[in-house]
UniProtKB/TrEMBL annotation:
Alphabetized Pfam families for the sequence: FmdE, zf-dskA_traR
Protein name: FmdE family protein
Source organism: Methanogenium marinum
Record domain Zinc finger DksA/TraR C4-type: where: 165-202
Protein origin, superkingdom: Archaea
Record keyword Metal-binding present: yes
A single GO molecular function term of this UniProt record: zinc ion binding
Entry keyword Nucleotide-binding: no
Lineage: Archaea, Methanobacteriati, Methanobacteriota, Stenosarchaea group, Methanomicrobia
Domain Formylmethanofuran dehydrogenase subunit E: 14-151
SUPFAM superfamilies named in the record: FwdE-like
Amino acid sequence: MTVKLPPFEEVAVFHGHICPGLAFGYRASEYAKECLNADRSEDEEMVAIVENDACMIDAIQYITGCTMGKGNMIFRDHGKPVYTFILRNGEKAVRIAQKPAFGQENLFPDVVDIQARMAEGTATDADRARMQEIRTEMIEKILTAPLDEIYECKEVKPELPERARIFRSVPCAVCGEPVSEQKARVQDGKIVCIPCFDEYTRGW
């Protein structure tokens, strides 16, 4: 199918700025729609399992229609640029993982030292100018490279999560604010929210 995408600049308006992370998410979304032969998910027709919470995720939400609020985006805090897209009809699922060779450090080796100096507060004007050059070039590379140079796309077994559910809210006995029953805790026989709950861990 011919993949229909909104202009990258339109996605950047939603996100707030243009950056390499947003470009990576833009291309991952394109690859997912191409591999699954899928349109934008109006409801929960497609599910995205994302393994990081960086800029990429905004592009994925905007383009694929898999969103946190709608319940068809699931976040797993693995810190990896990896995304699994599943069609709820059970026909197909793909796992899209960024190739290490397309990382910024591999394409622009000098970025490591520049970032270190920026973190230490010793970066020069030349460093900052070079960093902006790298950023611009990186975005251009991401947006124009063949998809299979950026990502590895593998078909995987569809493992469908439960559809999003709406839970009753109850008032926290401490702060009085409403909390979803599914996230509530019981403390001293009272229903409390997570921030008001004194967790017992024994040190581990």
